[in-house]
Amino acid sequence: MNPNSEGTFSMPSSHTPSGLVVAFDDDHAVANAGLALTATLTERLGVEAVVDELVDLGDRPGHHRPGRKVLTLLHAMVAGGDAIDDADVLRTGRTQEVLGHRVMAPSTLGTFLRSFSFGHIRQLDRVARPCWPERGPPAPARAPKS
């Protein structure tokens, strides 16, 4: 531990979701717990790199680092967001360390999304293919037989 200029101590972080240990002292207090699982899965599948490779917005505004923006939108939805401004909740506290990527600002996400045309949406459709193993995506859950 190293003291910073304000006299408090800070601990280094792994900055990777797979190195995260989640522990709770209250069985009922789990805020945005799904983010750790989602962050680990997206990291292991390499979603950010696949999006960066397959999504090309040319010189349109918001074209740089599309993978980070897609991950920010994905994680915002997992956290219950239903509007671009809801992504701001990911920028609070140490959430970025849990996610393992820099969380993009809502204004940046808006610029990014406004740059899409129908052809760019088709590029996003192709992102799922390389992210899943050879077997393809998991099958939908089946209702138990009664």
Query: What quaternary form is this?
Result: single chain
| Helix vs. strand class | mainly alpha
- Helix content class: 40-55%
Number of helices: 6
Biggest sheet: strand arrangement: 1-2
Overall spatial form: globular
Order of helices and strands: EEHHHHHH
Query: Unreliable stretches, pLDDT < 50, 5 or more residues?
Result: none
Rounded mean pLDDT score: 76
What is the tally of beta strands?
2
The main pleated sheet reads as:
2 strands, antiparallel
Strand content: under 5%
Roughly how many Å is the radius of gyration?
18 Å
Distance between the termini: 57 Å
What does this protein structure show overall?
A hairpin with a 5-residue loop joins β1 (2-3) and β2 (9-10). The relative contact order is 0.14. It is globular, with a radius of gyration of 18 Å. The protein is built from six helices and two strands; from the N terminus they run ββαααααα. The longest helix has 14 residues, at 118-131. It has a two-stranded antiparallel ribbon with strand order 1-2. It is an all-alpha fold and 146 residues long. The mean pLDDT is 76.
Topology, please?
Blueprint (H helix, E strand, L loop, with lengths): L1 E2 L5 E2 L23 H12 L1 H8 L11 H13 L16 H5 L6 H9 L3 H14 L15
Antiparallel strand pairs: 1-2
Helix pairs in contact: 2-3, 2-6
